[in-house]
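Shipment paperwork, digital attachment
Item: protein structure file
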Amino acid sequence: MNAAAEIARPHLRQHEPMARHTSWRVGGPADVYVEPHDLPELQAFLAGLPAGTPLLWVGLGSNLLVRDGGFRGAVVCLGKGFAGIEPIDERTLTVGAAVPCAKLAQQLGRAGLAGGEFLAGIPGTVGGALAMNAGAHGGETWQRVRTVQTIDRAGNVHRRTPADYRIAYRSVAGPPDEWFIGAEFSFEPADAESVQAAIHALLRRRAATQPLRQANAGSVFRNPPGDHAARLIEAAGLKGLTVGKAQVSTVHANFIVNLGGARAADIETLIDTLQQRVAAAFGVRLEPEVRRVGEAG
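Attachment content:
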């Protein structure tokens, strides 16, 4: 990892606890944690990284479980140079991968652009939303994508279109060893007050139905075809199930919350238990949305 030292010291830390960078507030140390502030810094870091070094890209740390033993490799969290929102024309925007989805939704509301209201309910960044086709309330990220900008391990930048990817419900597959650093999105001009009202209604609904005051990572499982993971979990009598300091939320059964002091192992045990018991009760195997990485503690 010596090549990583080329990045300015304030942007790189060794043995960084990932509990500081995940929305569950759990996770052991990463060998290297780097925050490149702009594209040249990112390119220099990637170009100098030893071949085969595992890479983990993190935004707001939602939808991610880092195990207690930490991550043996380099964690990349894009800095302010990737957090811009720039209009191209009256309906198209260029958006950096580090922009929080909620911030993008707010800007769309002010600009009177419709079709992205659902982004207000996504607790991650645009980069993460692109990587998993994040969605909520009937909207999905890739419905609005015109082009994306990616970077590979050598630091080369690519411009790609949706035709370069296989896109499905909470799933995106494309060129290997490339990561999203920005995208162009298209929306429809609309009355700004109406768009903002729709966003505010969505946020009120989210606050009433999700455990926003407790550390969580968003929805744990994908909804199976024709059903909802939360309904199955609750019907199996698992709402409120607790392992250590982790609990199946009593507000929304497809959320697992950190009650304070949970370990990643507690959360992972709950995930596995929910899968097993829902399968036993209903013959349905729930598929996690949450990505699990790293080594057991």
